[in-house]
Batch of 4 targets.
Target 1
Amino acid sequence: DSSCRTAKQRLRRVLHWGPLIALFIIFYIAIYTSRLLLIWWPPLKSHSNLLHVAVYALEYYLVMSTYLKAMFWGPGFVPIGWRPIDLTDDQQLKSLLQWCSICKGYKAPRSHHCSRCGRCVTKMDHHCPWINACVGHRNHAQFTYFLLFAPLGCLHSAVIVSYCVYYTLFYPFYHQDSEFPTEDYAMMNLWEVLLAFFCLGLALGTTIAVGALFFVQLKSILRNRTGIEFWICDKADYRLECRHDSMTAHLSIDEAGQPPKFQYPYDLGRMRNFKQVINWSGRPVGNGLDDWPLAPDCGKYDLTKEQVLQKAHKASTAVLASVIRAYTGTRFPISFGLRTACCQPCSIWIEEKRLSLSPGQRLIVTRAHGEWLYGQLLLADEQSQSARDASASRGWFPKKCAMEHWIDSAAATAGDNGGNGLVKDKKVQ
């Protein structure tokens, strides 16, 4: 289960650089702003001050409660060894669903395997280091609520801190010929002003960054697509346009002269899409496995079937590579050049891993990004098969580490589906 039910599980999830930094920012902004709020607007002095303090306390409660729920509830995992009950033919299963060799089961519709969590995640959107968990079916609503309340609370804090700093810095210029009033105003010293500017910077930065992420999530919710599914649909349209396989070769252009588009099966209209995630309780609707509502004229496994076809196409374009230079998996491999060290794929820092390599090893390369390649080691002996199951044999590495060879699609598919993947070189580039 992805949820943290015991104190030990919760502590383990919190003790990570992402939650520690996020909690520090939340607590620092809240505590420092509360101090200024209680000094400059004493709640017992007037009803308006009391209302002001109450509103800020409510914002802080909403931010903390939604953040902790998003972190401790988790995204929800596909059960180990899962397979749909309505499909019994193994051949049909392989043509409609992807097999996860790590979780020893089929991937449910809309689920994806997360290398950081080590499990297949239901309706996976992305792995968020700030909550040390994925954003998925169970915590999508709470994560979205947090993205809404955090900018509102930080913007409120920024206004409060800005007013106090402005009053402190410019009050003497407005009252040069008069003494300071005897009211309960707390003028700041130099250190307090510096701390206030630090708080203001954190508040404004959080407002901009988290606010932008909220609008991205809102777009995903209204279209009922996760970040991964946007990518899948784009690749599906590209595959249909280019006629990559026999399944799409017979399709013709429409009356407007445009190539066919992939029909996404979960787009129910903006309002129904919105209700699929956002509700008063913040709890998910359905089991997150195979009970997703479908758009008209769409099948239950339309998206997963498209993923299987895309995986076959990726295997057909894979190449075999031999390692010619060692790589230890360091974060900044400056020995491979400044461009290689600085221009790394963003997914390395969020979800995917770096692959340590030794000369003589062989691997299948399936992706490229600038000076980096993504591949999977070919493990010949059964003793090394456990390393593959632990997802330790997949990752990114510098392009200068390997020499590429051609590899046919049948061998690439065999290696990807759990075979030893050892093939003979056909041509050396």
Target 2
Amino acid sequence: MIPLSLVTLALLPLSVLASQDQASPIHVPISKRGNAIPVAKLPYIVDNIRLKYGYDSRLAKNSRRASSAAVPITDEQNDSSYSGQVSIGTPAQTFNVILDTGSSDLWVLTTSCQGCGSSSFNPSSSSTFKQSQSSTELDYGSGAVKGVISEDTVTFAGYTINPQIFLAVTQTSQGLLSSGLSGIMGLGFQTISGLQTAPFWAALSNSSQLSASEMAFYLERYVNSASEVDSAVGGVMTLGGTNSSLYQGSIDYQNFPSGTTPSYWLQNVNSMSVNGNSISISNGLAAIDTGTTMIGAPSDVVQSVVKAISGAQMLSGEYEGMFEFPCNTNVNVTLNFGGQTWPVSAADMNLGQLTTGMSRRASQSMCVGGIFDVGSTISSGSSSGVPAWIVGDTFLKNVYSVFRASPPSVGFAQLASGLNSNTGSSGGSITASASGVPFPTTSSGSGSGSGSNPFGSSGNGAAASHAAMGMTLLGAVAAGAALVL
């Protein structure tokens, strides 16, 4: 199965929150489930990322009261993705979903979806479930989901939106989700929502439930674990603020690059080095995406990266766009955003050893690098607004990352001492609990996001109207409802 979470990206409306007394943030622990990603699956992972961002596919040519909270998140398949628990309905039914700053919609498998697994939402068991007459399809590089646009009470990290619009999935491509996952929670901007509604995160901001219009992530590392990890704490997501126990020093916030609209969470890669060699960058516009496993870069950059690593060479065939290097070589990479340089652990740059027949060099052990060539956009018209870089978890595991909607910006900070050691274990003090604990018991309100509502006047109209007055409209970056991941 190809983990859906390896590819994700999205958008979220900016809210201007009124100044008021706020409770402290809530921190959500992240946990880990699944086995290590087989190297054989990397071509599909890379291909799905390309499709998501509008780049040419190499393989799948036919595919298309205010407060804050800390949430436990799960590290899926040795850093391939990170998930958390969401509750839907009355009484609540709880599911593991991908937490994705790269998409905008909430969807979950239902019991009407044949062959979708036992962890599915049962609409008939919820007294608050409502179903519209509208159905839609969300397309991903590795498949698609189809379902009915619905609404119900949704709770995450102790916060509740009632009602929240989501897609009740009745059909999905085989292998779209890894075992134990039931859907995805998009944490991006509304402008590319396939359901044309405010995502859960935005609905909380619009109804003034959050202390701050931001979310932060500490992601654990297990990619270099000596054994395949079935389940482990995956880090912490903080909703509505930050967690000072997870970083040291100050958070270096960088506003979105001048002239860009907040479509993706955008930054500029100002400079890069590989093993001490400076890499020339002509286009550094990057999407910062917690839902993407690797780092995607322009072709000329990847070629320069390969030249800077002794014994490295580009791969071909289904691995086209990726590169291999001697497994006994440490690849030390730094990325610079806004003048601040951040190192990437050599452990994150090594995605695993190629088996016989995969490598172009049979004389020594060769491993796959954590950077790949995004290639060219599908058409010249799609290049507008499409980032040249996709900076995913290969980088984000090395920093404390903050996504702030007002003003639109992304911030990075140095991890607290002891976090994300090269053994993949956490040696620092994390205030959030391990996965599986109940959601924090902070007071929750109800609200409704703005946007097209197939349910007419249902929902909290007053909250939506109030939120609309304080919202900066960003404009769309892509037409159509399909979400390409």
Target 3
Amino acid sequence: MISFKQLPLEAKAAVAAGVVFFSMMLSRSYLAEQLELRTRRWLLRLQMALFANALMLIGSLHVWRSTVTTFSKSSAASSFCFMPWKIAVFMFLALAHSSFFTLLFLVAEEPYLFSLAAYTCLGAYIILIFFLFTLGSVEQAYKFLAGRGAKAGTGNKNSRTAMKPVLAVMLTVVLTVVGLLNASRPPTVNSVEVPVHKLPSTMNNLKVVLLSDIHLGPTVGKTKLAMIVRMVKALKPDITVIVGDLTDSEAEIIRPAVEPLGELNSPLGTYFVTGNHEYYTSDVSNWFELLKSFNIRPLHNENVKIVSPKSTDDWFCLAGVDDIEADVLRYSGHGMDLKKALRDCSSEHAIVLLAHQPIAAKWALQERPDINLILSGHTHGGQMFPLNAGAYFLNPFFVGLYKVGQNTFVYVSPGTMYFGIPMRLGSRAEITEIILHSP
């Protein structure tokens, strides 16, 4: 029987990831009610960081072998550039691995340079892994189809082996720069007109501004939030809604960065529902209190009547549900409860629902097909290549406007900022201006 010491490094990393994952499940199932909230908060975040790093270690070993070990066997190893290159690759991998720990130690009013560098390396790491795997797969497919596996000369083989990591690194550098530049631009304002069945005629052309996935934390701070608030105010919305993932940190730590939200002054109110990242902070109650101090109302499985300024008899139901991740994390007193959220919301009036994840939107429509409009986020439009494909296949609604049935629409925001990695490839940050039309 093979002992743990005899396992290859990749297998050891996989075992470590499995152990950490098991400890996470154990903590959620048996320790959630026994641990103090602050202790549980730190344990969950530490476990997630360790789990991500254990998985990344498998990829990092492949990166090191592809970009360093490969060249150590060639004439390039004697070059004066080889040692600086080894140090650069090591620092790159170290920064990428450290990114997850910045959530624990480096969150403030404005992002630290170290956090920005670490998450940039994480983004480049994902792209590099993709290209190394893809180019390697293409190379193997070519060998198989050409039937030249063992017949190639040693010189040509070494040359082709060296070309693969060089090309992968070059593509990674180019796409990283493009992604950084794209993410540094202000969010685009996307205006969408949505017909809402049973919306009173006095509320025709009502303007709702949708924000989602701002992710205040290691790489998004007060300056970017202030820019978003200025853009929202310029649109002069009747209602502003924030559909989750506003933050990645505790309210007390990042409170100064949230202050610009107090400038939102939509006449019919500003509303908020939780996303999965709010529950990762384990600080939802404090976030609710902080948002209330800025006149932002959390919709915690509840609803409000949005009354027409022109007639008190005309109104529609605006409801919000907790994110479904609250159930997975066994977060006490929270979890998606559609019946409670839509209490007193009858099909006689228009119903607009705020639900962070598109899968929650799908479940809501299965239970209440009379909902007229659901506003979601969560997917980030994939945020960056090559994650776009995964986000597309894992969500029933990916990004943009969808018509479901005769009188129902779902709009999924691609996100107003980004999570961690300050890059966007194949997607664009957005502030959505939704114009409601009565039929």
Target 4
Amino acid sequence: MEYSNTKDKGITSWSYYHLGDVEIPEICVYSIENRCQYEKTGCKRLHAKCACHWQMKYDEKWINFRLFQSRELEESFQDPAKNECSITPFDTKMLEPSSRDMFKILGVEMWEANFKLMLIMNDSHSQAYTIRRLSTHSSAISNSAKSTVFEWYFVDKNNKWTKYGDTDSTGNISLTSNVTSNEIEKHFIINGKSLFKFKNADFEYELDFSKMIQRNLKTGKEREVRRRSQKRVPELQLNKKEVEGLPSHWDPMNKSDPMTHVLLTSSQKEYAEVESLLTAEVTNAHIISINRIQSPFLWRPLKNKMEELVLKYGSEQKLNMQKLFHGTKSDIVDKICKENFDWRLHGTSTGQLYGRGTYFSNSAAYSHNYSHSDSSGSRFMMVARVLVGYTVKGDSSMTRPPTNPTTGMLYDTTVDDEINPKIFVKYDKQEYYPEYIIEYTTNLQN
């Protein structure tokens, strides 16, 4: 996929793109639920699947942090006592294609974010980079359920951060302010350039938003003030399919059906996303159809394996789940849908240079070479959801991955190149799922 700049006409920028310049530095509230009417023509705001995302400025352009980096920054930012955050370095063995441009900038080193200066810094780099947080509208001026709630804090006599309207850590009720955090937020949004005055039983104060300080008008004592986003409580909205352990976007199925194909229409966003995976590299591909494969009996083993490895690795990010390609013949497609990929049953046309397992690729062009035309000229490309995890270079003698000295467990996947892999070899059917079938034609020869 080409991660385009939103200054190009008609391009809507998503938080998972590399470039994140937007005309209006906010999160589009409608993008969270795929309801933005301007997505196809070019929305002026950043699109994301959550209410905030962090960016850094590099070479005069705003760059989107990867999702795991943005989450780390946000989690620390929500704690008023924290003014710094360490950003987890990239793991080169688990580097997704969409992360490579950011990896070129940050490398494998640890970077520190400073929320007061809004900079990220590194001891070995003389240059610091500006960062910013994009979010949906403040709840002080928006009634949307996806708006961002901001809370205001001051540091009290015991150096504890106290939210305005609450009693501070001394327990002295007379020092409780007569304004709430929400009232301060409303003034900040509407008229943040002016001073905001309030009082408690003993003193009068003013808030200087330009300096982010609270000043006692009688004693002159100044205290630091912080505006932080409220920690959002996860919403429990599990539908029946999610309770049963199935993806929420699947169409309803009869319990008697072990597997079904759902034909996607070209008007669906899901169709466009899958189509772009192929046509980004196979530019002369003409899509005939895209089908979603719904097989509860193949999906649940993958989900169980994911939950098992999250417990072992301690992080969902370390699963390194990717959408990979597998070109195949028309007479094998149905067997894959029913049985999953299995080179022992379906054979292999790629050899076994990197291990005796099932082969996938992150290159559509590479996998295209193995999607042989049938009698009508149609080709078939499978798009699989693959649990890549930790990788190591494979060889033809491997019947399973070797032991990873870091985790003490087997590597999850063998690859052709540890730094820039194109080929991924899997040995356990629980670690991949055939998600889509793309039927297409091209002008290329077999």
